[in-house]
Amino acid sequence: MQQLLAAAQQMQEQLMNAQQELADTEVAGTAGGGLVTARVNGQGELVDLTIAPAAIDADDLEETAQTIADLVLAAVRDAYSRAGDLQQEKMGPFANALGGGMPGLPEMPGMGGLGTPGAAGSGGLDLGSLGRPAPGEPDSE
To answer: Which of 12, 38, 76, 90 lies in the 20 to 30 Å Cα band around 132?
Structure first.
């Protein structure tokens, strides 16, 4: 029984370390050959967004605005995808050890709960939270 409790405590410490490592890690997503870069932490929070001045065409502001919006969405999608991969890498072993979902762990927008089979790798980013339809869905604009 003591061994079981010791193993459970060790797993809890490893889980807490992995969660902290996720919180401290940032991943970048890019679009337009680097014209737009979105940085997301390992918990799925958007922490920085950079738009290169070269992305702006002063002669066609309306088209530029739409292009930048599209590039921002693509960069954010890329960053969320990379963060989901990172979550799966760091937290997946714990989910597998516990036999599935992990209640109480943070969720990334549109990525489902950690430990949910296929959540991080499903490509199922919910763009509704960004005001945009998912790929393949009609744009309501």
So the answer is: 90
38 burial (CB, 10 Å; 0-12 / 13-18 / 19+) is buried
Q: Which CATH superfamily is domain 17-130 in?
A: Nucleoid-associated protein YbaB-like domain (3.30.1310.10)
Stronger pLDDT, 35 or 96, i.e. the higher one: 35
Q: How many CB atoms lie within 10 A of CB 70?
A: 14
Per-residue pLDDT at 101 exceeds 60:
no
CB atoms within 10 A of CB 15: 18
Assign 99 a pLDDT band (cuts: 50, 70, 90): low
